[in-house]
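testing teh design pipeline on a random one, pls ignore if ur not involved
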C-alpha cells in the first residue's frame, strides 16, 4: 500500500508537470543539463536553427486529454503552449466538437498567465482536410425553422458560431504561430489566416474550395486573406486565381505571396523552428509582446490617425511597466533578454 501511494504521487507529479519529464529525458539522453529557460535555444542562436531538444519538445503530446477530444494541449517549455489538431484518422477534419473546443481553449489561454505564446500544428500526415462535412451537414444543410425568416435567422446564428472558432484566435492577445505540413484545405486556410505567424513545410499545399462547393466562404478566410496578403492578386485574380478556381497553392508560391513566412524542408525542422521562435517570444516582456499584437490588430482595422491615438492612450499606462527598466538594464549589461525574469501577466 505504501509503494502504491508513492507511485500515485509520482504519476500525479508527471501529469501535472510534463515539461519536467521532457527536461529530465534531455538531461539523461544528451548528457548536458537543460534548464527551462534555455530549453529550446541558447542566446544568440538563430530561431531557425533546430536542435535536438527542440525536436523532442515539438513531439506529439500523445493525443487529446479531457475536456478536449480533438485538441492535444501540452507545454513543451515554460510559457509556451502547443496545441495540436489531433484527428489523424479523419485527416484532422474539423468536427462540431472541434468548433466548440477551439473557443473554449483559446478563451482560457487568453487569460492564462502561464501562456505567453501558442504553437498550433496538426497530427498525422497532413495539417487538415478542412470541414468535416458529414459531421456538420445537419447544421448547415438542414437548418431548423418554420419559415424562410426563421431558417435564415438560425443559419446566420450557426455561421456566426463557426466564425467565432477562428476569431477567438485573432482576439487572443498571445501570439499564435501556426505550423502547416501536407495539405491545408478549406477551413484550414481560414484558420491559419487568423494566426499571427505562419510556417510550412516544402510539401505543404493550400486550397480554398468555396467555388468548387458552390458556396461563398463563411469561416472568415475571405475577409482575412486580403489583410494577410495585402489583397494580393494571386489570391483572387492572378496566375490561376486561388479562391475563384479552387486550385492548389504550393509552398514556394505561398511564401512569395506572403501567406507564409518561411518554408522548411520537413515537419521535424519546421516544428523545431516554430518552437525555438516561440521560446524567443516567450522570453520577452509579456506586456510588450501582447500589447504589440493588440495594437497591430487595431491599426489594421482603423485609420493611421486612429491607430496613433489608440497607441498613445495604450502606452500612457503600459510604459509605466517595470519590464521597461528591466529590459533597459539587461541591454546596458549586454545580457540576453531571456535572462530577465518578467512577472506573469
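output:
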Amino acid at each position: 500500500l505504501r509503494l502504491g501511494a508513492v507511485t500515485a504521487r509520482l504519476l500525479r507529479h508527471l501529469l501535472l508537470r510534463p515539461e519536467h519529464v521532457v527536461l529530465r529525458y534531455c538531461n539523461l539522453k544528451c548528457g548536458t543539463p537543460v534548464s527551462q529557460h534555455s530549453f529550446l535555444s541558447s542566446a544568440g542562436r538563430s530561431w531557425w536553427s533546430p536542435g535536438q531538444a527542440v525536436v523532442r519538445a515539438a513531439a506529439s503530446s500523445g493525443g487529446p486529454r479531457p475536456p478536449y477530444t480533438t485538441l492535444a494541449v501540452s507545454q513543451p517549455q515554460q510559457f509556451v503552449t502547443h496545441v495540436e489538431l489531433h484527428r489523424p484518422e479523419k485527416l484532422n477534419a474539423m468536427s462540431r466538437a472541434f468548433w466548440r473546443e477551439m473557443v473554449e481553449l483559446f478563451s482560457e489561454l487568453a487569460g492564462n498567465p502561464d501562456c505567453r505564446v501558442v504553437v498550433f500544428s496538426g497530427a498525422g500526415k497532413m495539417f487538415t482536410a478542412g470541414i468535416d462535412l458529414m459531421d456538420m451537414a445537419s447544421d448547415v444543410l438542414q437548418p431548423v425553422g418554420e419559415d424562410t425568416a426563421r431558417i435564415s435567422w438560425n443559419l446566420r446564428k450557426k455561421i456566426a458560431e463557426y466564425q467565432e472558432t477562428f476569431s477567438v484566435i485573432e482576439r487572443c492577445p498571445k501570439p499564435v504561430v501556426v505550423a502547416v505540413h501536407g495539405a491545408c484545405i478549406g477551413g484550414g486556410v481560414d484558420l491559419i489566416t487568423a494566426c499571427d505567424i505562419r510556417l510550412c513545410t516544402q510539401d505543404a499545399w493550400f486550397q480554398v474550395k468555396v467555388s468548387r462547393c458552390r458556396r461563398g466562404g463563411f469561416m472568415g478566410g475571405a475577409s482575412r486573406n486580403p489583410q494577410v496578403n495585402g489583397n494580393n492578386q494571386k489570391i483572387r485574380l492572378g496566375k490561376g486565381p486561388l479562391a475563384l478556381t479552387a486550385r492548389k497553392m504550393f509552398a514556394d508560391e505561398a511564401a512569395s505571396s506572403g501567406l507564409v513566412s518561411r518554408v522548411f524542408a520537413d515537419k521535424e525542422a519546421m516544428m523545431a523552428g516554430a518552437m525555438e521562435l516561440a521560446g524567443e517570444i516567450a522570453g520577452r516582456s509579456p506586456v510588450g509582446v501582447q500589447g504589440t499584437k493588440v495594437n497591430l490588430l487595431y491599426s489594421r482595422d482603423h485609420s493611421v490617425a486612429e491607430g496613433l491615438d489608440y497607441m498613445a492612450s495604450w502606452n500612457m499606462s503600459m510604459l509605466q511597466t517595470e519590464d521597461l527598466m528591466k529590459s533597459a538594464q539587461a541591454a546596458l549589461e549586454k545580457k540576453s533578454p531571456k535572462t530577465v525574469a518578467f512577472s506573469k501577466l
